[in-house]
Amino acid sequence: MLIGSYSPSLVVISLFVAVLASYTALDLSGRIATAKGRAIYLWMLGGALAMGVGVWSMHFIGMLALRLPFALGFDLDITALSLLIAVLSCGFALWLVSQQRLPMWQLGFGALIMGAGISSMHYTGMAAMRMLPGIDYDPALFGASLLIAVAASGAALWIAFNLRRNTPYVRLARGGAAVVMGVAIVGMHYTGMAAARFADDSFCGAALTGLSGKGLDNLVLVTSLAVLVIALLTSLLDARLEARTAVLADSLTLANQELTHLALHDTLTGLPNRTLLADRIQQAMQAVKEQGGCLALMFIDLDGFKPVNDAFGHHMGDQLLREVSQRLREDLRSQDTLARIGGDEFVLLVQLTQPNDALGLAERQVVLINRAFQVAEHVLKISASVGIAMFPGNGSTPQELLMNADAAMYHAKGMGKNGYSFFDVSMNSNARKQLQLLQDLRNAVEQQQFRLYYQPKFDAVSGAPIGAEALLRWEHPQEGLLLPAAFIELAEKTGLIIPIGEWVLDEACRQMRVWYAQGYEDWRIAVNLSALQFCHAGLVKSVATALDRHQLPANSLTLEITETTAMSDADASMTVLQQLSEMGVDLSIDDFGTGYSSLMYLKRLPANELKIDRGFVRDLEHDGDDAAIVSAIVALGQALGLRIVAEGVETDVQQSFLTRLGCNALQGYLLGHPLPADGFMADILRAQAALAPDKQRA
Predict the structure, then answer these.
(1) SS3 455
(2) Is residue 510 scored above 60 in pLDDT?
């Protein structure tokens, strides 16, 4: 028998190829496990080709490593068949490990099929040499090679199945497993080669017509390595892309969750907002219908919050609201919902067994709010008015329940605050009236039902008219002429004050332009700004647009803001007022003396005018304290170089006193009532005519 030898370098190379093919197989099984749809079959097909080429290359390089006393060659067709068997075997292996489960019987059956395939590839490849006489195989070693093939296949399938998921250190585990699998595959191959017996007179029938020649081993090696490396790199790059895509998807999911949270929760307290509350009410109502029981909707409004906000500023008010929400939240059960739906308005939704249970719960909310709050270095005392609507009984929709609870809350406020009130049908008329008023107010904005009345201002010394204050009126189709007290609070609450305020500003500038053209160039028109208007981002632009549209000099317009509004967020107010001042608009601090002032900020505010509140003027004749306050305000204004305007002048004594103090301008019913533009001018002309004889006598 002929004794062959092996090229050590090719043996080492075959082992390297086997390890690389094993690692590629393990990596591709991971890609298949995470792929979806048609991508699974594409990865499986590509993986079968790459892995099959790798295993077959190891086998072919191992055969090229064999050295016999005669030239060797390989039949092309039989060699191609061995490659096909390798590809099919590897495809079967990848399909098997891509299954959700791999029970032991299936693993054993798969090991037999794959082992048979690899053995068939090997011995088909050996047959490609077409040895004459044929190769004789040692039965023991032949059987051992088959057992090794089956055992190696079983181990490979088990390892690939268990390492297909991306876990920590999975690549290191795959590397170690690839070495074990490579050694097993090489062991099977060289055991099979050792089983071959060549007769002394043997020669290779494929040496003349088959694959042969120097450099074939290099060609096979380079080709197989290229296929394996391309497959491996494609897998790694795809895995990295998938990982980045997963990170991006997680980021988008998180962003969507945050956006959804922001859309459904109050940004200040983190509580559910009106939108989420409506959904929770709907769910609770459905649960009551299906399971019985009842639910209570408690509308909680804070008593005394506005004075705290006015006295200490919005920052302190915001902190107090957070403290209130935290205290109320601590008393909740997991199935209860606490929401914030407005400035100092909270709503508590609770499911109850008996309607009477709502009584004790409402009492507890009132007591909780009545306890003092420690906010920064201040101890603050407020209370709560709670309105309660029950389901079933007080409404059939979330909106109706909320409206009725709101009506009950206003009833509790009317009863003296710091308490609670259950909804009663008699309260419905007020709630419906408010709802109708809101609808009418929206129609009024669309149909321009508002009118401006003008109250004159006079020079305190000469008595000459120096301008007017524009005052809003609503010409309601059914109710007649309504004063601001009837609708401004609702307009503020719903945000309709913004379009209303813009209309007032534009109309006042239009009318002032008419008077300006008539020769009253030294007059000023005063317009009140609400707190919501002043905080609105478009205020400065609206003022500039109105002045530009009517070609009115900026100093012909005076904007009046209350002292409380100006001081609530003094730094932000400073910025807005500075922009208006730079534009040339006059600025007046209205109702001065009634709110919380900071003289440090007051001297920095770019104001031109202080307006003394009518509350101080009204009791000048009878209250020494009011007289002292007015005297102090006038002295302060003069020291700061500001014009002083007193409103609410109704008697000669008041007029005389304020003039002596040094007020620059006066307005009030004694001097002139608010009138439409035509009536206003008629009064002004009469007043001027009355002054003319006095001037002539003087």
Answers:
(1) strand
(2) yes
Phi-psi region of 136 (alpha: psi -120 to 50; beta: other; left: phi over 0): beta
pLDDT greater than 60 at residue 95: yes
Torsion angle in degrees (nearest 10) through CA of 684, 690, 695, 698? -150
Span 210-251, pLDDT tens digits: 776 554 545 555 555 555 565 555 656 555 666 666 676 777
Does residue 67 contact residue 8 with C-beta atoms inside 8 Å? Answer: no
Whether 326 contacts 369, CB under 8 Å: no
Q: How many CB atoms lie within 10 A of CB 3?
A: 8
Q: For residue 347, what are the β-bridge partners?
A: 299, 339
Judge contact between 103 and 174, C-beta under 8 A: no
Q: Could you identify the residue written with the tokens 């983190």?
A: 270
**Is the Cα torsion angle 149, 152, 155, 159 positive or negative in sign?**
negative
CA pair distance 557, 256, nearest whole angstrom = 47
- Dihedral sign for Cα 403, 384, 411, 296, please: positive
C-alpha pair distances (Å), 621 with each of 542, 596, 646, 652, 663: 42, 25, 15, 10, 17
Q: How far is CA 687 from CA 310, 467, 696, in A?
A: 40, 13, 15
* Domain annotation for the chain: domains and CATH numbers: 5-243 (no CATH), 274-423 (3.30.70.270), 447-697 (3.20.20.450)
Report which of 599, 537, 536 is spatially closest to residue 563, judged by C-alpha positions: 599
Nearest Cα residue to 107 out of 177, 52, 161, 44: 161
Q: Quick: pLDDT tens for 483-503.
A: 998 898 888 877 889 999 999
Per the CB < 8 A criterion, the answer to whether 388 and 421 are in contact is yes
User: Which tokens is 169 given?
Assistant: 């250190």
pTM: 0.49
CA–CA dist 611, 244 (Å, integer): 64
Q: How far apart are CA 696 and CA 698, in angstroms?
A: 5
Give 526-539 pLDDT, tens digit per residue. 999 988 788 787 88
Report residue 596's pLDDT band, with 50, 70 and 90 as the boundaries: low
373's CB contacts (< 8 A; 6+ apart) are 320, 323, 324, 327, 379, 380, 381, 382
d(CA 19, CA 181): 7
Task: Show the beta-strand stretches assigned E in 353-410.
Answer: 373-375, 378-380, 383-391
Q: Which residue has the tokens 């199935």?
A: 335
Ranges 81-90, 501-510, 638-647, most confident: 501-510
- Residue 519 has a CB neighbour count (10 Å cut-off) of 8
pLDDT of residue 242: 62
CB of 303 closer than 8 Å to CB of 417: yes
